[in-house]
Amino acid sequence: MKLKYIFLIFSGSLMLLTAASCKKELVDINKNPNATQNPQPDYLLTAAIKNTADTYWGTANNMDASLLFVQYWAKIQYTDPDRYIYSNTSFQDLWGIGYSKSIVNLNKIISLADAQANPNYKGVALVLRSWVFTLLTDQYGDIPYKQATNIEQYLTPAYDKQRDVYFALLDDLKAAEADLDPKGKAIAGDLIYGASANNITQWKKFANSLRLRIALRISDREPDKARQVLADVQTEGSGYINSNADIAELVYLDSPNQNPISNLFDTRDDYRISKTIVDKLVELKDPRLPIYASPTKDATPQTYVGIPNGLLVGDASNLGFTKTSKPGVYFLAPHAPAVIISYAEVLFDQAEAVARGLITGNAADLYNQAVTASLNQYGITESTTVNTYLAQASVKYDASNYKKSIGNQKWIALFGQGLEAFAEWRRLDYPQLTPAVAGTLNGKIPVRFIYPGTEQSLNGASYKAAITDQGPDLLTTKLWFDVN
C-alpha cells in the first residue's frame, strides 16, 4: 500500500511537470512572429493614449450615450439611444477597451519603468491609468481596481467599492506627482504634451488637476478627505493646469488617425445638436453658439435649430435633415482635439472648492476666469465680447447657489466631453434637464451605465457582489458619489 501511494504521488507530480513543460512549449510555439516580445514603453504609451481617447470621444460612450444624456447632441435617426433604449452590450466598449487595452498597457509601462529606472514613465502611466479608472467608476460605480492591476493573477477580479476606488486613485496620483521629475530621464510616445522640455512639468499639473477633479467628486460624501487632498497639492507646490496651453488633450491627425466624430460624420448623418443646448446659448447670447452648432443647410427662420432629445423616429425625421443643425464644424474637423481636462474646468473646480470651504480664495473671481478661459479656448478673446457676456445677470456668479452658477456654465464649457459632463451633471444637479420626450425610464434620465453582459457570464460572482453593494444593475440606480 505504501509503495502504491508513493507511486501515485510520483505519477501525479510527473503529470504536473509534464503539463508545465507542455504549457511552456505551447507558449514558445504560439509566439506571434509579428509582435515584439520586448515591448517599448514609448510605443505602449502612444497606444494607451490613442485607444483611450478614441473610446472616450467615440460612438458608444460619447455619441450614443453621454452626449445624449446631458443633451449636447440628439438623434434625428435611429433614436433608440436618445430614448434610453439599450442592451447589455451597449456599454461594453469603455469597459472592454479600458481594461484590456488601456490599463494592461499602462500596467506594463509601470513595470518597465521600474526595471529601467525611469520614474517619469511610471508617473505618466499612473496619471493616465488613474484617468481611465476614473472614467470607469464614474460611469459604472463599483469596478475591479486592486485585482485589475494584476490581471494575470486574477482572471475574475473582485469589484471594489466606488469610495475605495476614488481613494486609491488619489493615492496613485499623489505617487505619480512625486515620481514625475522635470530633471529626470526624458520619455517618448507622449501624444498629449509631446517631447517638449516642459512636458513633465505639464504632467505634474495634469496629475494635480485630476486630484482636484476627484476631490470634488467625493466632496459631498467625504469633505475632510477632499480638503486634505487639496491641502497636500498646495503644500507640494506643482500647481494645476494654469493656461489653455496646458490643456490635456489629444489633437488628432488626418485619416486614418482623425477624430472619431469626424470619422463618423464622413459616412453617417443621424446626429444633430440638441435643442436644449441651442436654446440656452441663444438665451445667453453666447458667442460659442456658432462654434458648437452648424447653420442649417436650408434657410430657416433661426440660423441654428436643435432638436428635442428622445423623439420617436418619425417625429425626429419629420423635422428635416436640412432644416436642423449638426454639431459645429470645429467638432467635425479631422484634427479636432479630444479634451481630457481643460483649463476652464480646473478654474471651475477651484471656484467650487472655495465655495465649499475646501480651499481659500475668491470663488467669483475664479468663476469669471473659468468662463473667460472657456471662451478663449474657442478663440473668443475680444475683451468687449467677454466682458459683455460676463456682465449679464443670468451669467453672473451667484454665491447663494454656487452649484447652479458653476453647474450651468461648466455644462456649457464641457461641450463635447460627454463622460465628464455626465458625471458633473449628476454631482451638481445643474443644469436642470427635462427627460427625453419619448423616454423609456418613466420620466427619468440615466444616472449610470449598466455593466457589460459579459461580466454576468464571465465574472458572475464579482458582478453579483457589486449589485448587492450598490443596487440593481439599472440605468436609474444612483452611484455612491451622486447624493442628491
From TrEMBL:
The keyword Disulfide bond does not apply. InterPro entries: SusD-like_2, TPR-like_helical_dom_sf. Residues 1-20 form the signal peptide. It comes from Mucilaginibacter corticis. SUPFAM superfamilies: TPR-like. This is SusD/RagB family nutrient-binding outer membrane lipoprotein. Keywords: Lipoprotein, Signal.
